[in-house]
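QUALITY CONTROL LOG
STEP: pairwise intake check
CHECKER ROLE: data steward
CRITERIA: each record must contain a sequence immediately followed by its structure tokens, with no blank fields

ENTRY 1 OF 2
RESULT FIELD BELOW
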Amino acid sequence: MPYKKNEDLPENVIHILSSHAQDIYRAAFNSAWKEHANPADRNEENSREETAHKLAWNAVKKPYRKEGDKWTR
């Protein structure tokens, strides 16, 4: 279930991330979704979707950090 646009992202992502951070999240999620289609390519017993969301958050955490309720560069 790759995301075509930021508006398709989960509500919790849309409400707390800036547009730029959403772009990062969406691109990382879509890439991870494609790369981890095979269960053998995933860590532990996570689903494809769980793996993609975890990797997307990790990508956001590289240029952004959470300060209180907000994510800043």
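ENTRY 2 OF 2
RESULT FIELD BELOW
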Amino acid sequence: MFDALTDRLSSVFDRLGGRGVLSEKDVAEVMREIRVALLEADVALPVVRDFIAKATEAATGEAVIRSVRPADQVVKITYDGLVEMLGGGVEPEGLNLSLNPPTVILMAGLQGSGKTTTAAKLALKLGKDRKRVLLASLDTRRPAAMEQLATLAKLADVDSLPIVIGQAAPDIARRALQSAKLQGYDVVILDTAGRTTLDEAMMSEAAEIARIANPSETLLVADALTGQDAVRTAKAFHERLPLTGLVLTRADGDGRGGAALSMRAVTGLPIKFLGVSEKIDGLEVFDAARVAGRILGQGDIVALVEKATEELDVAKAEAMAKRLAKGQFDLDMMAEQLQQMKRMGGMEGLMGMLPGVQKIKKQIAEANISDRMVDRQAAIISSMTKVERKKPDILAASRKRRIAAGAGVDVAEVNRLLKQHRQMADAFKMMSKGGGRGFAQMAQMLGGIGGGGGGGMDRLKNLGGGKMPMPSEKEIEEMAAKLQGEGGLKLPGLGGGLPGFNPFKK
């Protein structure tokens, strides 16, 4: 999401890099380019005008710090403007859960916006927060809509309201509320029928359901790919329903991001979640500050940590940390890292969360770094015997040919994987020397992630805010240099490293 805008803004800021002072003419030129970038990203014109007016005032006002480089100053002003546009510098609002359960959440949206899938994703997220959730389909018009929600409820490991053929939507809502109260559910999610703003009968039905259910949250699900149509849809629905928030689906496929940037400013409604994949767990809490950071190519380390927290097997991580501390790193461990990477969103998903990656997109493309490459590497390791994975030094030419045939790749790819493994193993051996101090810190962090009492997770969440007791910058640089070596950062799937790429370096 926002790829085109990120590229355009990055080029604008790069051109400012060598300038010592910005004149009013320079500011006007920069703001004109930022204006074009926002309009090309499909941001609503009134929103762009307001943004440029405030940014220009900030860039030429008394608040400008002369000791700060102009490029950094403009980046900061743009960042602050984006945060304000996206919802202000406040903590993500999240869901308003009632103190007297069950909390009722009403899902509304156009046909085909992904509303039913989003209802199940939300149920899964609430279930992980130890809430007992009941899903109820009120869609009596679309064929098999109720059966679809029941199937998705099983995937999300939550309950769904039993289907009664022929019952009207308002009656289903009453039955769902009664069942939720009698059976002690914390949350009941009502999935209404997809409708159009021109269908007066269906809009009236939605309003009636809202009166019956008196929901704590009424969420409009909108497709981000529809751009400004999504903004107009939100305004039309808000006139008929007491909307409390928005969910933008297919955000991962929206390269422009204009809908997200316009929604809050035009409707006054907060964006609460982003749908980022077709998978049942593909729902992210919307955070204005973090999204603004992504747009400006700063990555999203907090999201990366949260993803690791959800997917990390603490026991396996601790066992691997102990082996790495001894300088041990075989191909089984490399395969486990590849699987961990896939569980966390794949290579492309992880790279998108790392700061600075946007500036080396060309190198990444030339290196053919993709999830398909990671799959091929995993297939190569799977084609080896247990002994070969433990002792790759025994892999002679005949064994490599057999492995390549089994994985469906060329022998050259097998050799590249083995070279990459050797480089990583050498780096870990270097880090294990001197008492394994680097691994002690790593194990301490891993031990806190997912474990009780906050521990490492609480510290890692404050990584960007300077609140956690981290190693000094020099120590981080040294650790990064050991992992990076001469050829670039050594991570699984990078095919030998990215030249000059160090995500630890500012």
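INTAKE CHECK: passed for both entries
DESCRIPTIVE NOTE, ENTRY 2: The chain has three domains: 3-86, 103-285, 303-484.
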